[in-house]
Please model this.
Amino acid sequence: MKGFPELGRTRVMGVVNVTPDSFSDAHLHDAVAHGRRLMAAGADLLDVGGESTRPGAARVPCEEELARVLPVVRALAEAGALVSVDTTRAAVAAAAVEAGAVMVNDVSGGLADDEMLATVARLDVPYVAMHWRGPSADMQTKAVYDDVVTDVCAELAARRDAAAAAGVRDVVLDPGLGFAKTADHNWALLRALPSLLSLGRPVLVGASRKAFLGALLDGRPAAERDAASAAVTVVAATAGAWGVRVHDVASSADAVRVVAELGRS
Ligand code: PMM
Model:
């Protein structure tokens, strides 16, 4: 995959959310410092996003998203990080790659912006296509499936094929845990990671600190879900996932190394 050396193990993508609920007034400086800490903790790449996708979240104007992410992408790329930009907008993707990003992570899999797939093809960077059924504002009303594994695989296969048809070379698929999914749907997809891998593309898993982990743990708040998140990293790495997207990098960086060592013959 262009720009990503073979590591022989699952990659750890550290989350750098440049949103006011993640970082206060001096958020730019805080976000860069946070990204640097994640690199020191063992992140293989950093995912910089400027728009919250939490259930119910409202959209951020494009100009605001650009103002949030570009300085952070630039600073972290200059510091030597491999940076992906977490955006559903083609204009943000293009500007971020110009600023040094080497991957586009699109939670909409190209469905939110008609220009996205052609833009990524032109930029010629790897592309994460996540399973998505609509904007965060009302996505939980779309958590209706005949069979969640079959349906998500079919919908992801369609995004894989659309990306390939547009000329995108390296597509990573992501089941989109928590996006138009109940806790039961998320667990079913985690049990079925081999089915996702059979779509023939690398798979990224983003379970870190999500509400379904809190629900399992009797309502534990997000900041106390890192051990459970690292447990999901073990599951994903054991299944052969390409990467995990996590907030607490140190625990997952250890976990992927343990799994890799166990897999050595
Ligand atoms: N989850 C969030 C944001 N971006 N990107 C990918 N590829 N996969 C995910 O699961 C994903 C994502 C939302 O999580 P956050 O609000 O904790 O960052």
